[in-house]
Amino acid sequence: MKLGSHVSIRHGYKAAAQTAVRNGAEAYQYFPKNPRSLSVKTFDQKDAEQCAAFCKENGILSIAHAPYPVNLSLEGEEMRQALQLSLANDMEIAQACGSVGLVVHFGKYKGHDPLEGYKLMIDMLNRLLVDWEGDLLLLIENNAGQGGRMGITLEELVQVRKLSSYPEKIGFCLDTCHAFASGLWNGSNWSEVESHGKDLEYFKHLKAIHLNDSAYGYASFRDRHANVGKGKIGMEGMAQFLQSSVIQGLPVVLETPDSAGYSHPDEIRFIREALLKD
To answer: What residues are paired with 27 via a beta bridge?
Structure first.
């Protein structure tokens, strides 16, 4: 397991990787560009390549995260074209940085027929991946259920991947807060979730973890992250999850509150000392 946190690219891609090392991390996540926009970014190729080289030399794994406005089930052809161009740009940047994958949330659809939302999502995946030849995978993240109930079961995630024309270019990112908030995992039945996921071959394609506790209760469908061990999942549930064989070797990244009083370096140390002891 490679533990780390989300970091800023304010000073460049290589600088972000260097920040991760200073934080005591072995993995990290970053936004390839402005996280609040679907704009296309002209990026510094040399900086990205230096980032990839630095990570390789230091044994660090990275994952990129698509901007907040991304919705794979978005309607309207003009917006879908903008979305496709934005995601292709993110994938190009993340590939240059040597990242494992680009994380995108499972689609959300507000229409009357949920099936149409799934169709839109699969169509976007196909449009995006048809010409993609890089090693980088598109990593679909499970939803918490806030604002819609799509993407909260392992069955949905596996089926969307299977129904795409390019499943070999798609993997998964599991968010622990989302799993708890959606009712997928109650914090004490991880062995059952793991067994079910193995039967579905979900874990065969799991490539990254978002390690977050939940500020709200089980099956609340509310997406609010808490520091590990300090939320409703709690120490015992998080420890049980972290001992799972299916996450070993993967980038495990914090998206938790980060403050001067309790920083991500503090939280990384806490997890190693309190939850990863033999």
So the answer is: 4, 61
